[in-house]
Amino acid sequence: MAATVPIAYQNSTTSSPDWLNKGDNAWQMIAATVVGLQSVPGLVILYGSIVKKKWAVNSAFMALYAFAAVIICWVTWAYNMSFGEKLLPFWGKAAPALGQQFLLKPAVLPATTHYFKNGTVQTALIAPFFPMASMVWYQCVFACITVILLAGSLLGRMNIKAWMMFVPLWLTFSYTVGAFSLWGGGFLFQWGVIDYTGGFVIHLSSGIAGLTAAYWVGPRSKLDRERFPPNNILLMLAGAGLLWMGWAGFNGGGPYAANIDSSMAILNTNICAATSLLVWTWLDVIFFGKPSVIGAVQGMITGLVCITPGAGLVQGWSAIIMGILSGSIPWFTMMIVHKRWTLLQKIDDTLGVFHTHAVAGYLGGFLTGVFAEPSLCSLFLPIPDSRGGIYGGSGGAQIGKQLVGGGFIIGWNIVVTSIICVVISFIIPLRMSEEHLIIGDDAVHGEEAYALWGDGEKYDDTKHGVHSSDSTQLSKPSVGATQVT
Protein backbone atom coordinates (compact mmCIF):
# COMPACT_ATOMS: atom_id res chain seq x y z
CA MET A 1 0.00 0.00 0.00
CA ALA A 2 1.33 3.37 -0.94
CA ALA A 3 1.72 5.87 1.85
CA THR A 4 -0.27 9.10 1.93
CA VAL A 5 0.28 12.63 3.08
CA PRO A 6 -2.49 15.06 4.09
CA ILE A 7 -2.77 18.33 2.23
CA ALA A 8 -4.37 21.26 4.05
CA TYR A 9 -8.13 21.52 3.60
CA GLN A 10 -9.32 24.27 1.32
CA ASN A 11 -12.89 25.53 1.60
CA SER A 12 -14.85 24.82 -1.52
CA THR A 13 -18.26 25.89 -2.77
CA THR A 14 -18.97 22.38 -3.97
CA SER A 15 -18.90 18.98 -2.29
CA SER A 16 -17.12 17.62 -5.39
CA PRO A 17 -13.95 19.66 -5.95
CA ASP A 18 -12.19 19.30 -9.30
CA TRP A 19 -9.46 17.10 -7.88
CA LEU A 20 -11.92 14.46 -6.59
CA ASN A 21 -12.18 11.30 -8.67
CA LYS A 22 -15.73 10.12 -7.99
CA GLY A 23 -15.12 6.65 -9.42
CA ASP A 24 -12.06 6.02 -7.29
CA ASN A 25 -13.83 7.39 -4.22
CA ALA A 26 -16.90 5.21 -4.82
CA TRP A 27 -14.74 2.09 -5.26
CA GLN A 28 -12.75 2.90 -2.11
CA MET A 29 -15.91 3.17 -0.01
CA ILE A 30 -17.29 -0.06 -1.52
CA ALA A 31 -13.97 -1.83 -0.90
CA ALA A 32 -13.98 -0.64 2.71
CA THR A 33 -17.55 -1.85 3.20
CA VAL A 34 -16.91 -5.37 1.90
CA VAL A 35 -13.74 -5.62 4.01
CA GLY A 36 -15.90 -4.64 6.99
CA LEU A 37 -18.34 -7.40 6.03
CA GLN A 38 -15.48 -9.88 6.28
CA SER A 39 -15.43 -9.15 10.01
CA VAL A 40 -19.07 -8.34 10.72
CA PRO A 41 -20.78 -10.66 10.00
CA GLY A 42 -18.13 -12.82 8.27
CA LEU A 43 -15.74 -13.74 11.07
CA VAL A 44 -18.45 -13.31 13.70
CA ILE A 45 -20.38 -16.11 11.97
CA LEU A 46 -17.28 -18.20 11.25
CA TYR A 47 -15.98 -18.01 14.83
CA GLY A 48 -19.41 -18.62 16.34
CA SER A 49 -19.86 -21.72 14.19
CA ILE A 50 -16.43 -23.35 14.07
CA VAL A 51 -16.12 -23.70 17.86
CA LYS A 52 -17.78 -26.07 20.31
CA LYS A 53 -21.43 -25.20 21.00
CA LYS A 54 -20.76 -23.93 24.50
CA TRP A 55 -18.33 -21.28 23.14
CA ALA A 56 -20.41 -20.00 20.20
CA VAL A 57 -21.60 -16.79 21.88
CA ASN A 58 -18.27 -15.95 23.47
CA SER A 59 -16.31 -16.48 20.25
CA ALA A 60 -18.70 -14.40 18.15
CA PHE A 61 -18.76 -11.65 20.76
CA MET A 62 -14.96 -11.40 20.92
CA ALA A 63 -15.02 -10.53 17.22
CA LEU A 64 -17.97 -8.14 17.52
CA TYR A 65 -16.45 -6.30 20.49
CA ALA A 66 -13.08 -5.94 18.78
CA PHE A 67 -14.69 -4.44 15.68
CA ALA A 68 -16.44 -1.73 17.68
CA ALA A 69 -13.51 -0.99 19.99
CA VAL A 70 -11.01 -0.63 17.15
CA ILE A 71 -13.23 1.86 15.30
CA ILE A 72 -13.29 4.26 18.27
CA CYS A 73 -9.57 3.87 19.00
CA TRP A 74 -8.74 4.29 15.32
CA VAL A 75 -10.46 7.62 14.79
CA THR A 76 -9.40 8.93 18.22
CA TRP A 77 -5.65 8.32 18.00
CA ALA A 78 -4.51 5.21 16.07
CA TYR A 79 -5.06 6.35 12.47
CA ASN A 80 -2.47 9.09 12.73
CA MET A 81 -0.10 6.77 14.54
CA SER A 82 -0.27 4.64 11.39
CA PHE A 83 -0.53 7.26 8.63
CA GLY A 84 0.15 10.64 10.19
CA GLU A 85 3.17 12.76 10.97
CA LYS A 86 6.32 10.84 11.85
CA LEU A 87 7.25 10.50 15.52
CA LEU A 88 9.87 7.77 15.08
CA PRO A 89 11.10 5.94 11.97
CA PHE A 90 8.56 3.21 12.76
CA TRP A 91 5.74 5.19 14.41
CA GLY A 92 3.49 8.16 13.77
CA LYS A 93 2.24 10.82 16.18
CA ALA A 94 -1.10 10.12 17.88
CA ALA A 95 -3.86 12.54 16.86
CA PRO A 96 -7.62 12.37 16.22
CA ALA A 97 -9.05 11.81 12.74
CA LEU A 98 -12.62 12.80 13.50
CA GLY A 99 -13.26 15.53 10.93
CA GLN A 100 -12.23 16.90 7.58
CA GLN A 101 -9.43 19.18 8.68
CA PHE A 102 -7.52 17.72 5.74
CA LEU A 103 -8.34 16.32 2.37
CA LEU A 104 -6.14 13.84 0.58
CA LYS A 105 -5.35 15.61 -2.68
CA PRO A 106 -3.13 14.14 -5.38
CA ALA A 107 0.39 15.10 -4.48
CA VAL A 108 3.96 13.91 -4.50
CA LEU A 109 6.37 15.18 -1.90
CA PRO A 110 9.58 16.82 -3.09
CA ALA A 111 12.44 14.46 -3.79
CA THR A 112 14.36 15.99 -0.91
CA THR A 113 11.89 14.65 1.65
CA HIS A 114 13.34 11.21 2.34
CA TYR A 115 16.98 10.21 1.95
CA PHE A 116 19.14 7.28 2.85
CA LYS A 117 22.63 7.66 4.23
CA ASN A 118 24.08 7.49 0.73
CA GLY A 119 21.96 10.50 -0.26
CA THR A 120 19.78 8.73 -2.82
CA VAL A 121 15.99 8.82 -2.81
CA GLN A 122 14.27 5.45 -2.50
CA THR A 123 10.59 6.41 -2.31
CA ALA A 124 8.32 9.42 -2.49
CA LEU A 125 5.02 9.62 -0.62
CA ILE A 126 1.92 9.80 -2.79
CA ALA A 127 -1.72 10.59 -2.10
CA PRO A 128 -4.94 9.35 -3.72
CA PHE A 129 -7.77 11.29 -5.35
CA PHE A 130 -10.36 11.08 -2.56
CA PRO A 131 -11.22 12.61 0.83
CA MET A 132 -9.46 11.74 4.02
CA ALA A 133 -12.67 10.22 5.42
CA SER A 134 -12.54 7.46 2.79
CA MET A 135 -8.93 6.71 3.68
CA VAL A 136 -9.63 6.67 7.42
CA TRP A 137 -12.50 4.21 7.06
CA TYR A 138 -10.74 1.95 4.56
CA GLN A 139 -7.73 1.61 6.81
CA CYS A 140 -9.97 1.24 9.87
CA VAL A 141 -11.56 -1.99 8.66
CA PHE A 142 -8.07 -3.39 8.04
CA ALA A 143 -7.13 -2.65 11.64
CA CYS A 144 -10.40 -4.24 12.81
CA ILE A 145 -9.91 -7.52 10.98
CA THR A 146 -6.30 -7.82 12.17
CA VAL A 147 -7.35 -7.86 15.83
CA ILE A 148 -10.24 -10.22 15.07
CA LEU A 149 -7.94 -12.66 13.29
CA LEU A 150 -5.66 -12.59 16.32
CA ALA A 151 -8.65 -13.58 18.48
CA GLY A 152 -8.85 -16.89 16.61
CA SER A 153 -5.86 -18.12 18.61
CA LEU A 154 -7.54 -17.35 21.94
CA LEU A 155 -11.07 -18.71 21.56
CA GLY A 156 -12.51 -20.92 24.26
CA ARG A 157 -10.65 -19.68 27.32
CA MET A 158 -9.56 -16.01 27.35
CA ASN A 159 -11.18 -13.87 30.04
CA ILE A 160 -13.51 -11.55 28.12
CA LYS A 161 -12.60 -8.63 30.40
CA ALA A 162 -8.91 -9.20 29.69
CA TRP A 163 -9.75 -9.25 25.96
CA MET A 164 -11.54 -5.91 26.34
CA MET A 165 -8.29 -4.44 27.70
CA PHE A 166 -6.06 -6.25 25.21
CA VAL A 167 -7.73 -4.89 22.06
CA PRO A 168 -6.90 -1.15 22.41
CA LEU A 169 -3.44 -1.86 23.84
CA TRP A 170 -2.41 -4.19 21.03
CA LEU A 171 -3.84 -1.89 18.37
CA THR A 172 -1.91 1.05 19.80
CA PHE A 173 1.47 -0.50 20.48
CA SER A 174 1.70 -3.22 17.85
CA TYR A 175 -0.56 -2.73 14.83
CA THR A 176 0.20 0.96 14.35
CA VAL A 177 3.94 0.27 14.29
CA GLY A 178 3.65 -2.26 11.48
CA ALA A 179 1.23 -0.06 9.54
CA PHE A 180 3.41 3.05 9.77
CA SER A 181 6.63 1.18 9.05
CA LEU A 182 5.33 -0.50 5.90
CA TRP A 183 2.51 1.74 4.66
CA GLY A 184 2.65 5.12 6.37
CA GLY A 185 6.06 6.26 5.16
CA GLY A 186 8.13 4.52 7.82
CA PHE A 187 11.59 3.05 7.44
CA LEU A 188 10.53 -0.25 5.81
CA PHE A 189 8.42 1.58 3.24
CA GLN A 190 11.30 3.89 2.40
CA TRP A 191 13.67 0.96 2.14
CA GLY A 192 11.39 -0.65 -0.42
CA VAL A 193 9.79 -3.58 1.41
CA ILE A 194 6.63 -4.52 -0.50
CA ASP A 195 3.38 -5.32 1.29
CA TYR A 196 0.55 -4.73 -1.17
CA THR A 197 -2.37 -5.01 1.26
CA GLY A 198 -1.21 -6.62 4.46
CA GLY A 199 0.60 -9.94 4.22
CA PHE A 200 2.96 -8.55 6.85
CA VAL A 201 0.99 -5.73 8.48
CA ILE A 202 -2.17 -7.81 8.98
CA HIS A 203 -1.59 -11.53 8.61
CA LEU A 204 1.95 -12.07 9.82
CA SER A 205 1.36 -9.77 12.79
CA SER A 206 -1.97 -11.38 13.78
CA GLY A 207 -0.54 -14.89 13.47
CA ILE A 208 2.58 -14.18 15.53
CA ALA A 209 0.72 -12.07 18.10
CA GLY A 210 -2.00 -14.72 18.35
CA LEU A 211 0.51 -17.48 19.05
CA THR A 212 2.33 -15.27 21.58
CA ALA A 213 -0.88 -14.30 23.38
CA ALA A 214 -2.01 -17.94 23.39
CA TYR A 215 1.20 -18.82 25.23
CA TRP A 216 0.52 -16.24 27.96
CA VAL A 217 -3.21 -16.93 28.27
CA GLY A 218 -2.72 -20.67 28.55
CA PRO A 219 -4.62 -23.56 26.99
CA ARG A 220 -8.28 -24.47 26.88
CA SER A 221 -9.60 -27.06 29.29
CA LYS A 222 -8.30 -30.58 28.74
CA LEU A 223 -11.70 -31.77 27.51
CA ASP A 224 -11.99 -28.93 25.01
CA ARG A 225 -8.51 -29.58 23.62
CA GLU A 226 -9.30 -33.28 23.19
CA ARG A 227 -12.69 -32.70 21.57
CA PHE A 228 -13.69 -29.40 19.99
CA PRO A 229 -16.23 -30.12 17.21
CA PRO A 230 -17.75 -27.24 15.23
CA ASN A 231 -21.34 -26.59 16.26
CA ASN A 232 -22.50 -25.67 12.73
CA ILE A 233 -20.33 -26.47 9.71
CA LEU A 234 -22.83 -25.09 7.19
CA LEU A 235 -22.96 -21.73 8.97
CA MET A 236 -19.17 -21.82 9.17
CA LEU A 237 -19.12 -22.07 5.37
CA ALA A 238 -21.36 -19.01 5.15
CA GLY A 239 -18.83 -17.04 7.20
CA ALA A 240 -15.98 -18.39 5.10
CA GLY A 241 -17.81 -17.38 1.92
CA LEU A 242 -18.16 -13.81 3.17
CA LEU A 243 -14.45 -13.84 3.95
CA TRP A 244 -13.55 -15.04 0.45
CA MET A 245 -15.81 -12.65 -1.47
CA GLY A 246 -14.87 -9.76 0.80
CA TRP A 247 -11.24 -10.21 -0.18
CA ALA A 248 -12.08 -8.43 -3.44
CA GLY A 249 -12.21 -5.23 -1.41
CA PHE A 250 -9.30 -6.32 0.76
CA ASN A 251 -6.87 -6.57 -2.15
CA GLY A 252 -8.76 -4.64 -4.81
CA GLY A 253 -8.74 -1.45 -2.76
CA GLY A 254 -4.97 -1.47 -2.31
CA PRO A 255 -4.07 0.89 -5.20
CA TYR A 256 -6.53 3.55 -3.89
CA ALA A 257 -8.00 3.63 -7.41
CA ALA A 258 -10.24 1.59 -9.69
CA ASN A 259 -7.45 0.86 -12.16
CA ILE A 260 -5.59 -1.96 -13.92
CA ASP A 261 -3.72 -2.87 -10.77
CA SER A 262 -6.96 -3.23 -8.83
CA SER A 263 -8.42 -5.58 -11.44
CA MET A 264 -5.28 -7.72 -11.45
CA ALA A 265 -5.35 -7.88 -7.67
CA ILE A 266 -8.92 -9.19 -7.57
CA LEU A 267 -8.33 -11.80 -10.27
CA ASN A 268 -5.09 -13.03 -8.71
CA THR A 269 -6.75 -13.22 -5.31
CA ASN A 270 -9.39 -15.64 -6.54
CA ILE A 271 -6.91 -17.68 -8.60
CA CYS A 272 -4.61 -18.20 -5.62
CA ALA A 273 -7.44 -18.94 -3.17
CA ALA A 274 -9.04 -21.54 -5.45
CA THR A 275 -5.71 -23.25 -6.17
CA SER A 276 -4.79 -23.35 -2.50
CA LEU A 277 -8.17 -24.79 -1.49
CA LEU A 278 -7.85 -27.58 -4.06
CA VAL A 279 -4.28 -28.43 -3.08
CA TRP A 280 -5.14 -28.56 0.66
CA THR A 281 -8.19 -30.75 -0.07
CA TRP A 282 -6.20 -33.21 -2.16
CA LEU A 283 -3.49 -33.44 0.47
CA ASP A 284 -6.20 -34.35 3.00
CA VAL A 285 -7.51 -37.03 0.63
CA ILE A 286 -4.05 -38.45 -0.08
CA PHE A 287 -2.86 -38.59 3.52
CA PHE A 288 -6.10 -38.99 5.52
CA GLY A 289 -8.37 -40.76 3.05
CA LYS A 290 -11.17 -38.19 2.91
CA PRO A 291 -11.67 -34.50 2.11
CA SER A 292 -12.25 -32.21 5.08
CA VAL A 293 -14.60 -29.22 4.81
CA ILE A 294 -12.71 -27.45 7.59
CA GLY A 295 -9.47 -28.27 5.77
CA ALA A 296 -10.86 -26.76 2.57
CA VAL A 297 -11.67 -23.54 4.44
CA GLN A 298 -8.16 -23.47 5.87
CA GLY A 299 -6.72 -23.92 2.38
CA MET A 300 -8.92 -21.12 1.09
CA ILE A 301 -7.69 -18.81 3.84
CA THR A 302 -4.01 -19.61 3.31
CA GLY A 303 -4.42 -18.85 -0.38
CA LEU A 304 -6.08 -15.52 0.32
CA VAL A 305 -3.39 -14.64 2.83
CA CYS A 306 -0.47 -15.69 0.65
CA ILE A 307 -1.52 -13.60 -2.37
CA THR A 308 -2.22 -10.50 -0.28
CA PRO A 309 1.31 -8.99 -0.12
CA GLY A 310 1.67 -9.19 -3.90
CA ALA A 311 -1.89 -9.39 -5.25
CA GLY A 312 -1.62 -6.61 -7.84
CA LEU A 313 2.06 -7.06 -8.52
CA VAL A 314 2.25 -10.62 -9.89
CA GLN A 315 0.99 -12.30 -13.05
CA GLY A 316 -1.74 -14.95 -13.04
CA TRP A 317 0.68 -17.82 -13.50
CA SER A 318 2.56 -16.63 -10.42
CA ALA A 319 -0.72 -16.62 -8.49
CA ILE A 320 -1.19 -20.29 -9.35
CA ILE A 321 2.31 -21.15 -8.10
CA MET A 322 1.65 -19.15 -4.93
CA GLY A 323 -1.63 -21.06 -4.49
CA ILE A 324 0.13 -24.41 -4.81
CA LEU A 325 2.68 -23.42 -2.18
CA SER A 326 0.11 -21.82 0.15
CA GLY A 327 -2.01 -24.95 0.00
CA SER A 328 0.91 -27.25 0.82
CA ILE A 329 3.46 -25.48 3.05
CA PRO A 330 0.98 -24.30 5.75
CA TRP A 331 -0.69 -27.74 5.47
CA PHE A 332 2.69 -29.32 6.22
CA THR A 333 3.43 -27.01 9.16
CA MET A 334 -0.05 -27.61 10.63
CA MET A 335 -0.39 -31.33 10.04
CA ILE A 336 3.22 -32.49 10.41
CA VAL A 337 5.49 -29.91 12.05
CA HIS A 338 2.95 -28.83 14.67
CA LYS A 339 2.44 -32.39 15.86
CA ARG A 340 6.17 -33.02 16.21
CA TRP A 341 7.37 -29.71 17.62
CA THR A 342 7.07 -29.70 21.41
CA LEU A 343 6.81 -25.91 21.69
CA LEU A 344 3.88 -25.70 19.29
CA GLN A 345 2.20 -28.60 21.07
CA LYS A 346 2.35 -26.72 24.36
CA ILE A 347 0.78 -23.56 22.94
CA ASP A 348 -2.96 -23.85 22.35
CA ASP A 349 -3.61 -21.89 19.14
CA THR A 350 -7.33 -22.65 18.88
CA LEU A 351 -7.88 -22.13 15.15
CA GLY A 352 -4.28 -22.56 14.01
CA VAL A 353 -3.90 -18.86 13.19
CA PHE A 354 -0.12 -19.22 13.28
CA HIS A 355 -0.25 -21.59 10.32
CA THR A 356 -3.05 -20.02 8.29
CA HIS A 357 -1.89 -16.41 8.73
CA ALA A 358 1.69 -16.16 10.01
CA VAL A 359 3.16 -18.95 7.88
CA ALA A 360 1.05 -18.08 4.84
CA GLY A 361 1.68 -14.35 5.27
CA TYR A 362 5.46 -14.69 5.53
CA LEU A 363 5.42 -17.13 2.61
CA GLY A 364 3.44 -14.64 0.52
CA GLY A 365 5.79 -11.80 1.40
CA PHE A 366 8.78 -13.89 0.35
CA LEU A 367 7.10 -15.01 -2.90
CA THR A 368 6.21 -11.40 -3.68
CA GLY A 369 9.94 -10.70 -3.61
CA VAL A 370 10.37 -13.52 -6.10
CA PHE A 371 7.48 -12.89 -8.52
CA ALA A 372 6.74 -9.13 -8.43
CA GLU A 373 6.54 -8.10 -12.10
CA PRO A 374 8.31 -4.81 -13.00
CA SER A 375 5.55 -3.25 -15.12
CA LEU A 376 2.89 -3.99 -12.51
CA CYS A 377 5.15 -2.63 -9.78
CA SER A 378 5.49 0.62 -11.73
CA LEU A 379 1.70 1.03 -11.65
CA PHE A 380 1.57 0.82 -7.86
CA LEU A 381 4.91 1.49 -6.17
CA PRO A 382 6.76 4.80 -6.14
CA ILE A 383 9.99 2.79 -5.84
CA PRO A 384 12.31 2.99 -8.85
CA ASP A 385 12.83 -0.28 -10.73
CA SER A 386 10.98 -2.53 -8.28
CA ARG A 387 10.98 -6.15 -9.39
CA GLY A 388 10.99 -9.71 -8.16
CA GLY A 389 14.02 -11.93 -8.05
CA ILE A 390 13.15 -13.87 -11.21
CA TYR A 391 13.26 -10.66 -13.28
CA GLY A 392 16.94 -10.01 -12.57
CA GLY A 393 18.40 -6.59 -11.93
CA SER A 394 17.70 -5.48 -8.37
CA GLY A 395 15.20 -8.31 -7.87
CA GLY A 396 17.56 -10.42 -5.81
CA ALA A 397 17.86 -7.66 -3.24
CA GLN A 398 14.05 -7.48 -3.04
CA ILE A 399 13.89 -11.01 -1.64
CA GLY A 400 16.25 -10.02 1.15
CA LYS A 401 14.22 -6.90 1.89
CA GLN A 402 11.05 -8.99 2.16
CA LEU A 403 12.64 -11.41 4.62
CA VAL A 404 14.01 -8.59 6.78
CA GLY A 405 10.70 -6.72 6.75
CA GLY A 406 8.85 -9.84 7.88
CA GLY A 407 11.49 -10.45 10.53
CA PHE A 408 10.89 -7.01 12.00
CA ILE A 409 7.14 -7.67 12.25
CA ILE A 410 7.76 -11.04 13.92
CA GLY A 411 10.18 -9.68 16.49
CA TRP A 412 8.10 -6.61 17.35
CA ASN A 413 4.93 -8.64 17.86
CA ILE A 414 6.55 -11.26 20.06
CA VAL A 415 8.01 -8.62 22.38
CA VAL A 416 5.13 -6.14 22.49
CA THR A 417 2.37 -8.77 22.73
CA SER A 418 4.22 -10.41 25.61
CA ILE A 419 4.55 -7.11 27.47
CA ILE A 420 0.86 -6.33 26.99
CA CYS A 421 -0.21 -9.75 28.27
CA VAL A 422 2.05 -9.55 31.31
CA VAL A 423 0.81 -6.06 32.20
CA ILE A 424 -2.84 -7.12 31.89
CA SER A 425 -2.20 -10.23 34.01
CA PHE A 426 -1.24 -7.98 36.94
CA ILE A 427 -4.66 -6.32 36.71
CA ILE A 428 -7.00 -9.16 35.77
CA PRO A 429 -6.53 -12.89 35.00
CA LEU A 430 -5.94 -13.56 31.33
CA ARG A 431 -7.68 -16.93 31.48
CA MET A 432 -11.21 -17.73 32.60
CA SER A 433 -11.84 -19.53 35.86
CA GLU A 434 -12.09 -23.31 35.79
CA GLU A 435 -15.83 -23.08 36.47
CA HIS A 436 -16.35 -20.85 33.45
CA LEU A 437 -14.23 -23.15 31.31
CA ILE A 438 -16.48 -26.07 32.19
CA ILE A 439 -19.80 -24.27 31.61
CA GLY A 440 -18.98 -21.93 28.75
CA ASP A 441 -21.26 -19.22 27.38
CA ASP A 442 -23.97 -19.53 30.01
CA ALA A 443 -21.48 -18.78 32.79
CA VAL A 444 -19.58 -16.05 30.92
CA HIS A 445 -22.47 -14.19 29.29
CA GLY A 446 -25.65 -15.68 30.72
CA GLU A 447 -26.60 -16.52 27.14
CA GLU A 448 -26.44 -19.57 24.89
CA ALA A 449 -26.35 -19.84 21.12
CA TYR A 450 -28.96 -22.55 20.59
CA ALA A 451 -32.10 -23.63 22.42
CA LEU A 452 -31.05 -27.24 21.93
CA TRP A 453 -30.31 -29.85 24.57
CA GLY A 454 -27.83 -32.66 24.46
CA ASP A 455 -24.22 -33.46 25.25
CA GLY A 456 -25.35 -34.73 28.67
CA GLU A 457 -26.77 -31.38 29.80
CA LYS A 458 -29.58 -31.47 32.37
CA TYR A 459 -32.62 -29.35 31.59
CA ASP A 460 -33.74 -27.03 34.38
CA ASP A 461 -37.13 -25.49 33.68
CA THR A 462 -36.83 -23.08 36.59
CA LYS A 463 -33.76 -21.58 34.93
CA HIS A 464 -34.44 -21.82 31.23
CA GLY A 465 -38.20 -21.31 31.04
CA VAL A 466 -40.68 -23.06 28.73
CA HIS A 467 -39.42 -26.21 27.06
CA SER A 468 -40.83 -26.71 23.58
CA SER A 469 -41.61 -30.39 24.16
CA ASP A 470 -43.50 -29.79 27.43
CA SER A 471 -47.06 -28.99 26.37
CA THR A 472 -48.19 -28.63 29.98
CA GLN A 473 -46.00 -25.53 30.30
CA LEU A 474 -47.53 -23.67 27.37
CA SER A 475 -50.57 -22.45 29.25
CA LYS A 476 -48.77 -21.45 32.41
CA PRO A 477 -45.10 -20.47 32.42
CA SER A 478 -42.99 -22.06 35.11
CA VAL A 479 -41.39 -20.06 37.89
CA GLY A 480 -38.51 -18.00 36.54
CA ALA A 481 -39.63 -18.19 32.92
CA THR A 482 -39.83 -15.11 30.77
CA GLN A 483 -43.34 -14.49 29.45
CA VAL A 484 -43.39 -12.95 25.98
CA THR A 485 -46.32 -10.63 25.29
UniProtKB/TrEMBL annotation:
SUPFAM superfamilies: Ammonium transporter (SSF111352)
Domain Ammonium transporter AmtB-like: 26-450
Transmembrane parts of this sequence: 26-48, 60-79, 136-155, 167-194, 200-218, 230-250, 262-281, 293-311, 317-337, 358-383, 403-428
UniProt membrane topology term: Multi-pass membrane protein
Alphabetical keyword list: Ammonia transport, Membrane, Transmembrane, Transmembrane helix, Transport
Pfam families in alphabetical order: Ammonium_transp
Domain of life from the UniProt record: Eukaryota
GO molecular function: ammonium channel activity
S-adenosyl-L-methionine among keywords: no
Localization terms from the record: Cell membrane
InterPro entries associated with the record: Ammonium/urea_transptr, Ammonium_transpt, NH4_transpt_AmtB-like_dom
GO cellular component: plasma membrane
Main location: membrane
Biased composition (Polar residues): 468-485
Region described as Disordered: 463-485
Database matches in PANTHER family: AMMONIUM TRANSPORTER MEP2
Family: Belongs to the ammonia transporter channel (TC 1.A.11.2) family.
This protein's name: Ammonium transporter
Native organism: Daucus carota subsp. sativus (Carrot)
